[in-house]
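Journal club prep — side note

Before the paper discussion, L.F. wants everyone to see what a predicted structure for a comparable chain looks like in token form. Sequence:
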Amino acid sequence: MKASVLLKSSLLTSLFVITSCATTKYSEDISKNNYSNLEAGKVYKVTMRDGSPKQKILFRNIVGDNLVGTAGKKDSTEVIIPKSNVAAVKDSRKARIATGATIIELQVLLHW
């Protein structure tokens, strides 16, 4: 019985670690923010500080105080987002992996 409780708690801990890596939050002071974790060619969902809808961006690079990319892999419309308006950035790929891991872990836990 103790082993099963220990195993369940370690699975839940690993679930928390996996899902916490999917989103990076940024402060209002852009000089303190580190955008080096953004990779060119990856799709990100950007949450805006001003409350406007989340924006999907195929990240290309940083030019001055702006994140620059396109609207998607198939849509070449240029997207420019000021760093000062970025509240959080979610890596779409990591979020899908985290969701898959959550489903698998919940199925395992429910069968115990």
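L.F.'s comment for the group: The chain has a mean pLDDT of 78. Keep this in mind when we get to the figures.
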